[in-house]
């Protein structure tokens, strides 16, 4: 951990800051999330550091609560997509044959439609709640994870130590979790960072389009949507969440890049 | 005596290492080696892996592979120190004055370009010849190296010629720009013994006819004895002994050289067959999915309890396929595997846990046969847990016992495979299979990836364990010296058929069938002039036919 490059350190700093704020949002936010405390689009002042939004709520509080929602939804969806994607991917690699064909072609089918469009169609039909949102995003993204996991596992599956385990008579559970998973973890963890960022962008996009997190709940994409009309009048309220999304994306990517570099290094960087 | 062509003085070479869990640091891998090479002479560099022989070979082209750096000393080629000369001069040197033949020709040729384009490339690039002249010289070299159809073989792509032919093409490539020095880096190691002879003879004649000097790098003393004038023995970056080939082979001075010369001198008393074999392979015919021909044809062999059956053959003879059929990884099309008196299910899924336990396997590449994320304790402990339900202290005790049996000891328990040497890894694999208390172990080329002295240690260990545990070995190998050392009976395989089978004494004594004769006579022997004798013997035979 000593030789962290400066870029990764900056990324790590911002990422930790965002997660910290998300976890302790109720303690940090100066006002309530939906509390109307002033006029429409007030400029920043000592009471309202970032000013107020389109109906007079404190923008800083909205940003803090919004970050909490965005990061929570993105994290939950990422975990869901990794668990389903990698378990199915490993299973396809170990079972091979028909099981592999059915799973892989199914995934191809889902991937052939842009995931935003699939999500919009599904979310337009069912009532949008946070759990539904997480499940839809997680399952759509699981297709990408599935592909990576399967590709990695297929390479590991032909190693002699996996064959030795099969000859010993081990079941699929041991082979997947004890032989394949520990060796597939590095590329998967690196991918985790990248996928998390796609999730942040995904949920923000959905909220901006009105099919994501529903008001009065705040989230960054939603705040952009609520305040976008202000831009015409020179009100910068919509830009703050945009900046937050961008900095979070860049900082997580910096960390992910560093992890990726470490794990793919041929010179014993693994581990 | 004229000035030496290559003069190396106090050559020191370093590299950066990245040990797991530690900070990267620099180590020295060659500690001040000096030697001379006269024009037209051949110097053999011999040593085990890690001895620094390839590194020294490449240093004579002022090149360090990967993170390797030349840190000190002088390398003089044709009267100038190439470590101090300009980059432009080095460009003229490489591929002009000094050329290189690597171990794997298949990996070194560009598969997308015709052989001729690659053979003449350096000569044309260095402006030694025009393209036309270079091609004419290449054809001459093809003919000299005994390649079939030398006028047209250059128009083929690398995958359209065999491995041995490609290695000769690479020799032509190295000789084409009329270099003063050729570095041969294990040019025959990846080849079958029967192919190795042809390539060796071709290289030897080409060196003699063109008057080029050569560094010949190999780990096989018997091979280097055939081609070189002088031999330098290296060990861990130090020169152990330097002398004429005759002196090194017949009168080695240093203990290490003596050990290398006398390697594979294990005495093994042949055991008599018992009435009840532990494994009986009955009429096995097998093919891989998607192939339209059989890889094994009607194979019948028996293995008796506590004995060793060696299965010998070149690559592609079907010996590893036989192992896959016996283990159940490849269900046969026809025939039965009778093991310990019961007929085994043809596929892995149909076998009982007891079947699996009693039939274990050890692999050629120990480093991929062990999960890199498991400790030695987990690797050896898993079969104990899995087959015998051992837990906690009982399991630990048994692991320590096994580690003692393979001469490693308790301190290895918490190490990861990456922290073991090649020989130690193979020992752990042996312990893993012994942990299951098997009746029989399939050993698939278990010593081929190891250095001769280490391999010797493994063979001795296997023989000792056979006495203690009374386990039978099915020993798959292409190396006849190993076969002599370890087997009680032998099956010689050729193109998926068993061509000769019986007790060791019988199989290895005349009269021979043609293939066994070819195979036996191809094993390099450690005396001078062996190569010429074999080639002369073969010429006589073919003249007689």
Automatic annotation (TrEMBL), chain A:
Q: Which residues cross the membrane?
A: 6-29, 71-96, 116-140, 192-211, 231-260
One Pfam family per UniProt: BPD_transp_1
Question: What does the UniProt entry say about where the protein is found?
Answer: Cell membrane
Residues of the ABC transmembrane type-1 domain: 67-256
Q: What membrane topology does the UniProt entry give?
A: Multi-pass membrane protein
Q: Which UniProt keywords apply?
A: Cell membrane, Membrane, Transmembrane, Transmembrane helix, Transport
Mind telling me which InterPro entries this protein's record contains? BP-dependent_transpt_permease (IPR050366), MetI-like (IPR000515), MetI-like_sf (IPR035906)
- Does the keyword Lyase feature in the UniProt annotation? no
The record's annotation in PANTHER family points to: OLIGOPEPTIDE TRANSPORT SYSTEM PERMEASE PROTEIN APPC, PEPTIDE ABC TRANSPORTER PERMEASE PROTEIN
By sequence similarity, the record places it as follows: Belongs to the binding-protein-dependent transport system permease family.
> Which named protein is this?
ABC transporter permease
- Annotated organism of origin: Ruegeria sediminis
TrEMBL record, chain B:
Coiled coil located at which positions? none
Cell cycle is among the record's keywords? no
As for membrane topology, the entry says: Peripheral membrane protein
Q: Where in the cell is it found?
A: Cell inner membrane
Per its record, what are the GO molecular function terms? ATP binding
Q: Which domain of life is it from?
A: Bacteria
Record's keyword terms, sorted: ATP-binding, Nucleotide-binding, Transport
Does the keyword section mention ATP-binding? yes
A Pfam family recorded for this sequence: oligo_HPY
- List residues of the ABC transporter domain: 6-261, 279-520
The record's annotation in SMART domains points to: AAA
The family annotation for this protein states: Belongs to the ABC transporter superfamily.
Q: What is this protein called?
A: ABC transporter ATP-binding protein
- Species classification: Bacteria, Pseudomonadati, Pseudomonadota, Alphaproteobacteria, Rhodobacterales
């Amino acid at each position: 951990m000593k030789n962290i490059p400066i870029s990764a350190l900056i990324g790590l700093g911002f990422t930790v800051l965002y997660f910290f704020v998300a976890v302790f949002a109720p303690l940090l936010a100066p006002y309530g999330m939906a509390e109307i405390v002033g006029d429409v689009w007030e400029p920043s002042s000592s009471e309202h550091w970032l000013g107020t939004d389109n109906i007079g709520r404190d923008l800083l509080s909205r940003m803090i609560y919004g970050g909490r929602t965005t990061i929570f939804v993105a994290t939950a969806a990422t975990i869901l997509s990794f668990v389903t994607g990698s378990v199915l991917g490993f299973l396809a690699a170990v079972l091979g044959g028909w099981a592999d064909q059915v799973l892989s072609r199914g995934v191809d089918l889902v991937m052939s439609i842009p995931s935003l469009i699939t999500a919009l169609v599904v979310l337009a039909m069912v009532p949008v709640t946070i759990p539904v949102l997480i499940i839809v995003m997680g399952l759509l993204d699981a297709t990408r994870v599935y592909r990576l996991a399967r590709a990695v596992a297929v390479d590991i599956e032909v190693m002699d130590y996996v064959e030795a385990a099969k000859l010993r008579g081990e079941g699929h559970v041991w082979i997947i979790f004890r032989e394949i998973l520990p060796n597939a973890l590095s590329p998967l963890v690196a991918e985790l960072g990248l996928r998390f960022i796609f999730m942040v962008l995904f949920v923000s996009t959905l909220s901006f389009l009105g099919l994501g997190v529903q008001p009065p709940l705040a989230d960054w994409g939603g705040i952009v949507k609520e305040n976008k009309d202000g831009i015409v009048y020179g009100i910068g309220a919509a830009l703050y969440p945009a900046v937050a999304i961008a900095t979070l994306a860049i900082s997580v990517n910096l960390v992910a890049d560093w992890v990726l570099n470490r794990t793919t290094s041929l010179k014993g960087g693994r581990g | 005596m004229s000035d030496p062509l290559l003069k190396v003085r106090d050559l020191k070479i370093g590299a950066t290492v990245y040990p797991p869990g530690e900070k990267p640091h620099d180590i020295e891998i060659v500690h001040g080696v000096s030697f001379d090479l006269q024009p037209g002479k051949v110097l053999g560099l011999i040593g085990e892996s890690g001895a620094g022989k390839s590194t020294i070979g490449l240093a004579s082209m002022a090149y360090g592979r990967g993170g390797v750096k030349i840190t000190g000393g002088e390398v003089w080629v044709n009267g100038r120190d190439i470590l101090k000369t300009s980059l432009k001069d080095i460009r003229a040197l490489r591929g002009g004055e000094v050329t290189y033949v690597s171990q794997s020709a298949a990996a070194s040729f560009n598969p997308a370009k015709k052989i001729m384009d690659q053979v003449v490339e350096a000569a044309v690039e260095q402006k030694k010849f025009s393209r036309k002249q270079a091609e004419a010289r290449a054809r001459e070299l093809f003919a000299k190296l005994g390649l079939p159809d030398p006028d047209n073989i250059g128009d083929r792509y690398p995958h359209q010629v065999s491995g041995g032919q490609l290695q000769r093409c690479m020799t032509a490539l190295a000789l084409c720009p009329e270099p003063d020095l050729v570095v041969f880096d294990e040019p025959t190691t990846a080849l079958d013994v029967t192919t190795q002879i042809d390539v060796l003879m071709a290289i030897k004649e080409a060196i003699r006819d063109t008057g080029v000097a050569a560094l010949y790098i190999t780990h096989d003393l018997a091979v280097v004895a055939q081609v070189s004038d002088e031999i330098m023995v290296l060990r861990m970056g130090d020169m152990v002994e330097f002398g004429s080939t005759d002196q090194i082979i017949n009168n080695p001075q240093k203990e290490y050289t003596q050990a290398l010369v006398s390697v594979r001198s294990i005495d093994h008393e042949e055991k008599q067959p018992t009435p009840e074999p532990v494994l009986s392979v009955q009429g096995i015919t097998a093919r891989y999915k998607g192939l339209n021909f059989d890889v094994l044809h009607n194979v019948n062999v028996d293995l008796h309890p506590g004995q060793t059956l060696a299965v010998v053959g070149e690559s592609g003879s079907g010996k590893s396929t036989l192992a896959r059929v016996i283990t159940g990884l490849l269900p046969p099309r026809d025939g039965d595997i009778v093991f310990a008196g019961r007929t085994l299910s043809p596929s892995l899924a149909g076998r009982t846990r007891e079947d699996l336990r009693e039939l274990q396997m050890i692999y050629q590449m120990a480093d991929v046969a062990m999960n890199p994320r498991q400790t030695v304790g987990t690797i050896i402990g898993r079969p104990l847990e899995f087959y015998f339900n051992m837990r906690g202290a009982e399991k630990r005790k048994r692991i320590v016992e096994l580690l003692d049996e393979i001469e490693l000891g308790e301190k290895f328990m918490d190490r990861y495979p990456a922290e073991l040497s090649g020989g130690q890894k193979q020992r752990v694999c042996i312990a893993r299979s012994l942990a299951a208390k098997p009746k029989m172990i399939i050993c698939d080329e278990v010593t081929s990836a190891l250095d001769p002295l280490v391999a010797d240690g493994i063979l001795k260990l296997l023989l000792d364990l056979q006495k203690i545990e009374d386990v039978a070995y099915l020993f798959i190998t292409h190396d006849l010296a190993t076969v002599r050392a370890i087997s009680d009976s032998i099956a010689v395989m050729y193109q998926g058929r068993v061509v000769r089978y019986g007790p060791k004494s019988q199989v290895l004594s005349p009269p021979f069938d043609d293939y066994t004769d070819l195979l036996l006579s191809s094993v390099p022997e450690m005396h001078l002039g062996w190569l010429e004798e074999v080639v002369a013997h073969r010429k006589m035979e073919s003249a007689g036919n």
